[in-house]
Amino acid sequence: MRSTFSGLNTVVSGIEAHQLSLDTIGQNLANDSTQGYSRQSVNLVATKAMDQLSLYGKSYVGSGVDAASITRARDVFADKHYWRESATKSYYDQRKTDYTTIEQIFNDAQINSQDVGLKSSINDFWASWQKLSTNASDGDTRINTRDNAVSMADKIKTMAAQMQSQINSNYGQLQSDVNSVNTITSQIAALNKNIVQLEANGGSANDLRDQRDELVDNLSKYLKVNVSEKSNGAYTISCDGSNMVDEGSSTNLALQAENNSDYGITDYTLTFKDTGAIFNPSDGEIKGIQDNVATDKSYMDKLADYSAFFLTTFNAQHKEGYGIDGGNSGKGSTDINFFGDTSNSYKWVDDKASQADGYEKAYVEKTDVNGVIEKLRGIDLINELTVNSKITDKGGTDYIAAKGANKYTKTDSYTDSNGHSVKTGDYIDANGNWLDYSHRIPAKNGTADKADGSNAVTLSTLFNTAIDNAGVNDSIKNAAGMELDAGGNPTKQTSTNNMGLYNYYTDNMATLGTSSSITNDNVTKQTAVLTQVDNARQSVSGVNWNEELTNMIKFQQGYSACSRVLTTMDQMLDKLINSTGEVGR
Length: 585
Hints:
Shape: rod-shaped
Oligomer: single chain
Strand order of the largest sheet: 7-8-9-10
Mean pLDDT: 87
Largest sheet: 4 strands, antiparallel
C-alpha cells in the first residue's frame, strides 16, 4: 500500500535527477575546450514501482526516477582507427622533414642567379677539362682546373658534414621520442591502477579514462599501438607484438650506442631496457626517424660513390696522360694521381656478387708505396678526395696530365704486324703496332710546351659516358672495378653503377625528387584521412553547444515542472492535515 506522502518522494527524485543532469551539462560546457574531454550524460532509469489496489486488482504506480550512471560518449572503433592512422601520419611527417633537408643539401637550384649545389661544382670541373682539351698549355686554364677541383672536393666534404649533422639530429629526436614514450607508458600504467581501484564498486572514472585515452593518442604518434581493455577496465597496450603496458606495469625503451666509423657517427639501436632485446617498430614517428637515418646514410654513400669515381676511374685515366713540366726527357711527367697522393693507387672493389661467401660492402682499395692495403668507405673515402699536393704546390699545375699518348680509339679490333691483338684504348706507335705501358709516347712527339689535350678529351668524356663506351683501356676498367664475362658483359659494378658520372648523379637526384614528392603526397593524403577520422570521433565524444543548450532547457523545464508538482502536493497535504475536521468546531 502506497504511503500518503509517497508522491513527495517521487517528485523529489525527479528534482534531484534533473538537477544532476543540469550539473552534468554544466560540466560538459565547462570542459568544451579541454583536450581529450569526452561528453558525459546521465543515464536515468525509473525506480521500482509500488503496489496499488484497484477495482480490477493490483496495479503498479511509479515511485520516481534515479541516476543509474554517468557515462562518457566514446566510440572505441573510432579511437582504434584514429590511433592507427595517427601513427602512419607521424611516420610520413618525419620522412617529409628529412627529405626536405636532403633536398636543401643537394640543392641544384639557382640563388641570386648563381648556381649552387654539387652539380654546379662538378659541371665547373668538367668544363675546365673541356677547355684544357683545346688549350692544354694555357696556365690560367690549368689553374682554373685545379681550383675547380679543390672547390668540388670541398663541396663534397661540406655536404657529407651536413649529412652527418642531419643523422645526429635524427638521433637526438629519437632520444627525445624514447623519453616521451617511457613517460607516457608509465602514466598510462598509473592511470590503469587508479581506474581499476575507483571502478571496483561499479562506478565509471570518466575523467581518468579521458586522460588515459589522451595519453594513448599521444603514444600513437610515436608507435603503432594495439589497445585492448580488460574486464576490470585496465588497458593492455602492445606495439608490434610486444607489450608496452599491462595493467599497472609498463615497459621502458632504451637506446644502445655503437660507433660507426664508416659514417663518422655514433649509431643508436632501439632496445627494451630490461631485456636488451632489439625493438623494431613498424610505424609511427620512431620508425620514421629510423628510416630517415637509413636514407641519410644512403645519400652519404652517394657522396662516397662520387668520390670513388674521381679516386679510381678519373685518377687512372689521368695517370695515362702527360704533364707539361718537362720531365720524362721532355715528354712531361706521367703516372700522377690528380686526387690523393701520387704514391697511392686506388681501385674500386665490389663484392656484391659474392654474397654466398659473405657479403662485404663495396669499397675503394687504397694501396700505398709499400703495398699496404687500406679499405676506404663512407666518410674516410670522402675525406680522401683531396687534390694531389704535387698539383696544388707552386707551379704544380704543370703536372695536370691533359696531354695524351697515341692510342687506338676505334671500336673494332685488329692484329698488328707483330701478331698482337689491338683493341680500343691500347697504345700504338706510328705504324699501328701495340705498345706496352712503358713505351707509350705523347701524341705530339713529346713536345712539353705544346700539349695536345687528347687525355683531357678522354677525361671529360668520362663525366658523360659509361666507362665501357668511353674508349679507355683495361687498366682504367680494372681501377674502376668493372669486370666483364666472356661475352663482354659487366659482371661487377663501378662506383657509378657502370654509368657516366652525370647520369649516375642525375638518377640519384631524380630518385630523391620522386621519393620526396611521393612522401609529400602521402602526408597530404594521410592528413585528410586523419582529419576525417578525428571528425567522426569528435561527432560522438565532442561537446556540441546546441545539443547541450537544448538539453539544458529540457532539464530546466523538467526541474521546474517537478518543483511545481511538489508545491501542488504540499498545498494538498496542507489542506488535508490542517483543514480536515474543522466543521462543527
